[in-house]
């Protein structure tokens, strides 16, 4: 399993930096200054205006890479691939240990039939782990080092669940098992300190305790582990919001999808239906989903997908506690990103990283159903079907990694998948400009301006820089004038770099354009 995961993600090791990594790793000096280790490890960073300052575990992982690799992308990608490999092993172990939950015994009580053999259980665990390892949806989190936060949330959340299920298997009964309980609580803290969606970790831990039908008064492991996890998470979140500084980096606050909470709640089922579609058929994956991405899922279609799915998984959860845990693993990590509060990205592949582990557990439960597990022919057919599916998923995963290999590849793909995205058109314009493809870059910049009705200064600036490189000095100055009229802060490129609103290459070109403006050139 480890070898397959590493082999599938081998192309990523030679990819460059894309998206936020270009700014956070290549431009921002914070990660590369050893003096910042103390504020990160002591959580003082929560009160500092730093990119990912509210995610100290994520920062620490990137700072460790920076200490080892500087600004070379290979090491950052290697770390992400290794964390994903560790998560794959945890999914495999979770599926094996989930057999301790009610409804996953060795006999089928309803029909008085023998349950699946240990050999078939082992095979199912392998298939579930590999499904998680090679599904194309995981590529966004694995291939972009600054999205590693989702890998870390999964690492610590899966870790606490595996520890808790190990306690059940150990049969410690009334003993407290303080080390394991403490480790579970610490994992919950590390999960939420990696990203806010880590809030799901103690909730999932409590769900395991409830599904186990244990007497929490007798088995003190559960109140200590769950209570300790909830307390640490609550304290971290309180500090995270209480200490949050006024930011010069995040000058634009996120707004509700559709403009209001009511509109967001109306659109959210369409996003969930999109997620269900991407899990079952991972085609048209996109780095920037928007209204264009859900145009084929009007509310009636979305509900026709979701309602039968909810009914089916509800019935399955009633019969098997493992399915209930799988559903919790899908839904609870999605709650913080379900647009109940404003977020910058309404939908993203990386949001499905941990939920995909729940899908893998659900798939394993289905493969252990009596109709499949008790007959050699059906087992062989299931294995062949699963092997074919895994091969197709692995091929799709490798192809998707090419998209995340360079900025130009990423934005070309995103603009094709979502042509209505100003972010994609703006990113494409900058990437084409860097590649020296000026006519195409100019068209992409004009597309971005059109999609935003000319309200974004950066798009005007990008167009001006492209025209300047093309020898159209007068037109470039006109574009710069429009950009400055919208955002006067562009007159100070060094400040924009310090605020992580501009990279050094753009700042250098802007300085030249400003100098020509000052001299009337």
Uncertain spans: 105-112
Helix content: 55-70%
CA-based shape? globular
Average pLDDT works out at 92
| Whole-number tally of structural domains | 2
| Global Rg | 25 Å
Residue share in β-strands: under 5%
Distance separating the two termini: 62 Å
Write the element-wise H/E pattern from the N-terminal end onward: HHHHHEEHHHHHHHHHHHHHHHHHHH
Helix vs. strand class? mainly alpha
If helices are DSSP runs of H or I spanning 4 or more residues, what is the number of helices? 24
| Number of beta-strand segments | 2
The biggest sheet, with number of strands, parallel, antiparallel or mixed sense and barrel status, is:
2 strands, antiparallel
Strand line-up across the major sheet:
1-2
Description:
The structure is a single chain. The protein has 521 residues and is mainly α. The protein folds into two domains: 2-245 and 258-403, no CATH class; 421-518, Tetratricopeptide repeat domain (Serine Threonine Protein Phosphatase 5, Tetratricopeptide repeat), CATH 1.25.40. The protein is 64% helix and 1% strand. The protein contains 24 helices and two strands. It has helices spanning 2-8, 20-24, 37-41, 56-69, 73-97, 118-134, 139-143, 148-170, 178-192, 200-211, 221-242, 261-280, 299-319, 321-331, 353-367, 370-373, 376-403, 407-417, 422-434, 438-451, 457-469, 473-486, 493-498, 504-518, and strands spanning 107-108, 113-114. The chain has a two-stranded antiparallel ribbon. Helix 6 runs antiparallel to helix 15. It is globular, with a radius of gyration of 25 Å. The model is unreliable at 105-112 (pLDDT under 50).
């Amino acid at each position: 399993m480890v070898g397959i995961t590493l082999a599938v993600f081998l192309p990523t090791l030679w990819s460059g930096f894309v998206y936020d990594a270009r700014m956070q790793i290549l431009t921002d000096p914070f990660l590369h200054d050893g003096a910042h280790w103390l504020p990160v490890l002591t959580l003082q960073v929560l009160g500092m205006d730093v990119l990912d300052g509210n995610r100290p575990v994520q920062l620490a992982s990137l700072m460790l890479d920076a200490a080892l690799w500087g600004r070379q992308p290979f090491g950052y990608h290697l770390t992400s691939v290794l964390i994903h490999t560790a998560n794959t092993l945890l999914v495999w172990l979770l599926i094996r240990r989930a057999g301790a939950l009610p409804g996953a015994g060795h006999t089928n009580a309803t029909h008085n039939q023998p349950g699946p053999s240990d050999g078939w259980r082992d095979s199912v665990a392998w298939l579930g782990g590999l499904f998680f390892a090679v599904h194309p949806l995981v590529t966004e989190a694995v291939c972009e080092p600054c999205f590693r936060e989702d890998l870390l949330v999964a690492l610590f959340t899966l870790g606490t669940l595996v520890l808790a299920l190990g306690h059940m298997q150990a049969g410690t009964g009334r003993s407290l098992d303080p080390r394991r309980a403490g480790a579970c609580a610490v994992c919950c803290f590390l999960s939420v300190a990696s990203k806010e969606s880590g809030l799901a970790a103690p909730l999932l831990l409590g769900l395991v305790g409830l599904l186990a039908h244990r007497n929490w008064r007798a088995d003190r492991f559960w109140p200590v582990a769950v209570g300790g996890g909830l307390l640490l998470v609550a304290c971290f979140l309180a500090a995270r919001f209480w200490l949050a500084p006024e930011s010069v980096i995040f000058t634009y606050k996120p707004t509700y999808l559709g403009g209001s909470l009511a509109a967001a709640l109306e659109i959210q089922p369409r996003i969930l239906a999109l997620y269900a579609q991407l899990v079952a058929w991972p085609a048209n994956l996109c780095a920037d989903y928007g209204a264009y991405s859900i145009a084929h899922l009007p509310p009636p279609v979305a509900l026709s997908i979701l309602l039968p799915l909810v009914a089916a998984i509800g019935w399955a959860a009633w019969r098997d506690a493992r399915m209930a845990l799988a559903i919790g693993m899908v839904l609870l990590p999605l709650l913080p990103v379900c647009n109940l509060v404003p977020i910058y990205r309404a939908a993203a592949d990386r949001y499905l990283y941990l939920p995909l582990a729940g899908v893998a557990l659900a798939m394993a439960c289905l493969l252990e159903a009596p109709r499949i597990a008790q007959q050699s022919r059906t087992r062989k057919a299931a294995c062949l079907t699963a092997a074919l599916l895994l091969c197709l998923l692995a091929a799709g995963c490798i192809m998707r990694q090419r998209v995340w290999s360079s900025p130009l590849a990423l934005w070309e793909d995103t603009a094709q998948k979502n042509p209505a995205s100003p972010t994609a058109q703006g990113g494409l314009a900058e990437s084409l400009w860097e590649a020296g493809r000026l006519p195409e870059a100019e068209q992409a910049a004009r597309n971005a301006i059109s999609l935003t009705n000319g309200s974004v200064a950066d798009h005007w600036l990008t167009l001006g820089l492209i025209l300047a490189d093309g020898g159209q000095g007068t037109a470039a100055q006109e574009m710069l004038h429009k950009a400055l009229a919208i955002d006067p802060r562009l007159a100070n490129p060094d400040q924009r770099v310090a605020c992580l609103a501009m990279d050094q290459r753009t700042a250098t070109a802007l300085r030249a354009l400003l100098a020509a403006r000052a001299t009337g050139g």
